[in-house]
Amino acid sequence: MAKKKKVILPPDLPPEIADNEIEVSDEDLDFVRNNLKYAGFLTKLDKKSIDRHVTRVADYEDDGLEALYEKRNRKAALLKAQEEELQVDPADALPIKTLDGKLQYRIAKKRRSEEKNDDIECASGDKDDDIVRLTKAERREKLKKSKKEAKKLAKQENELDIHAGKLHAEVLEKVQEELSAEEIFAGKKMKLAEIGMALLEDPESNIRSLKELLNICNDKDRNIVKLALMSLLAVFKDIIPGYRIRSPTEKELAMTVSKQVKKMRFYEYTLLSSYKAYLLKLLKLEKQSFFHQVAVRCMCTLLDAVPHFNFRESLLASIVKNISSSDDVIRKLCCDTIKSLFTNEGKHGGQATLEAVRLIADHVKLNDCQLHPDSINVFLSLKFDEDLGKSKRMEDDDKVKKKKRWQNQEGSKQLKGNDKKKSRQELMAKTREEVDADFKAVSFSLDAVEQRRMQPKINAASLAGGVGPHPLLASCLDGLGKFSHLIDLDFMGDLMGCLKKLAGFSEQHQDSGASDQSSLSVTERLQCCIVAFRVMRSNLDALNVDLQDYFVQLYNLILEYRPDRDQGQVLAEALKTMLWEGRQHNMHRAAAFIKRLASFSLSFGSAEAMAALVTLKHLLQKNSKCRNLLENDAGGGSLSGLVVKYQPEATDPNLSGALASVLWELSLLMNHYNPSISSMAVSISSMANLNPDQNPVSLYAASPLQAFVDFSIERELLKPVGKPLSLNRKRKRENREGFSAFSPDQIQLVGSFINEDRVKKKLEDHFKLLRDIRENERFRSDLNCTKWSIDLYEEYERQRKQIDKSKTHRKKKGGKVL
């Protein structure tokens, strides 16, 4: 018998000790700390699963915990059986009814290897009588069907993979293009900066780089083209010389020159050709809407910076073409450039000014004066030296005197010719001419002879545009008023006749007593009157023109003025130019204007009223006899004139009979809502108690134009900001206005329902308020009189102190003499 093998038993487990009784000593802790590498598995434990397991069984006791484990095992087995079993179709097998009354169908185990062929499936199926068997034809058809479905699925998967690959490739390509575009843009910007810096540092050595910048202007990226244009602009502004480059002739090219001259010729030739190509590029890009503003800005900057350089005519022609552009930015750029050209004539010697004026005049004629007013307003920046004629006459007189003196010296002394002395004088004269020429080339001051030659041409060219239709009329009238003293006296008569015709005056005025209905607006006719007065005052010694017709026009245009249609500032300027300034007026005409201005001030706002009252007060101060209009006689003042009765409808101020009227409008103006207007009315009314030679202290010493501007600003500041009327409020107002269309019977019916006591109470309150207003007006007039007395007293004290001071100064001076 074989020997029995010795069984080795496992070691006994340590005794079970409760968790509360376990004590960890310091030695154990030191051992764990020293041997951490052996405790590494503890870090890999799944703490979440352990915690979940502990928390799930923590509240159960021994019996409950054992039941929980059994229930969990049964559940796992049931799930496993459901996975391995296959329920048979109820049509293939009969069910079994359990004792509970539920129907239970027969089931069969699921085959684990579905990828085996049909024979293996049949062999395995023979072992189990419960599986349904298929015929051979059915098995073949099922196999074909599964193969087709497999091919179809494989094809769809391939298509999806191909499509996803294409999308991925397209997205990747787009991202790469965007990244590459940004890198390319940044690289081109860096290249532009490098080339520009190199040209600015040493233009002579790097002049060939201009062609590279010009090539970048042909780039497909529009933003790069803009940057290239601006870079070239900055480079040309810096490197263009202060003289005009002249191309060498064939004879000069055939001559042998030094290397320095060859280098300079090459530099100038390259610069000029590149500048020409740049201008051609700008003119080409100007026609494109995307580059239009950039191209115009570049041309305006070049003309403003280097107006003396070559191809100035092309720049001027393009800028003048855009001077009346519909784009406000481009029009302002061109107008500012032309104005700068006119004011800085030292840069170009005045020749560019003459060219610009001629081009603008031709442009106005070509467009039949249908342009923006800014295209003509640039002429107001022209400068004409009025002392050129005087200096020329003085030079001629000096030449005549020197010639006479030299002839006298020649007659008295006969000096022998000295060749050496003559050659020395010629050399000095030649040197002086060279120095003068260099100084003239460097300085920005104009030569007097050249300026005298250019100025008449500029003046004639600027007037060649003529006074066209309405768009340019106001600008032309402003220019005539400013430069009227430079126009030849031979044209003054025709000019005054044209202005009279434009103002609307007819030759039949003396017969019919009315003026023609002009096609011009009230503002334009007032401007014609203003220009006529300025022309007359600037040529007062040479002209003998009767301005009565213009006074008649102003007298009638005051009534035609409408604040929402016409310009109040032009009316205030007309009052200032024709009535406030100048000599003393005829008494009848002054009285007519005083009466009309008083009526005018009642009908319009504070600005118009203050301008009219300032003019009215000035006329009363200059024409002391017209102060009779302030009297309260029933038939007017003591001077009634030739016309006994006042005729407000008269068109001629001399025939209106205004001296027979009274300024009753002032009593209403004293109650004006604006305290400045009421104070001015009180001040004018107080002039009735003064002597003819005495004038009151002026409360407002500004001109009518300044008064209108000041009160226009005040009106804008005090204008309430309210919401627009809603539709319901508009309907209510329309219904309220429609009340006047009631019939008399309806009005009588409504009147029968009126409460008389209520109406009586409202009337009493109203008249009580009026009495309070009158009381306040009386207090206000007393306050104004007190202020006026205080002003007079302060003026008296100031004059008395000045007199005392002068007396003491005289006494001290007399004591020193003694």
Automatic annotation (TrEMBL):
Primary localization: nucleus
Domain of life: Eukaryota
Subcellular location: Nucleus, Nucleolus
One Pfam family this sequence matches: NOC3p
GO molecular function terms attached to this record: chromatin binding
Alphabetical GO biological process terms: DNA replication initiation
GO cellular component: nucleolus
Domain CCAAT-binding factor: residue ranges: 526-681
Biased composition (Basic and acidic residues): 416-427
Entries under InterPro entries matching the protein: ARM-type_fold, CCAAT-binding_factor, Noc3_N, Nucleolar_cplx-assoc_3
UniProt-annotated stretches for the region Disordered: 393-427
UniProt keyword terms in alphabetical order: Coiled coil, Nucleus
Family assignment from sequence similarity: Belongs to the CBF/MAK21 family.
Stated name of the protein: Nucleolar complex protein
Annotated source species: Ananas comosus
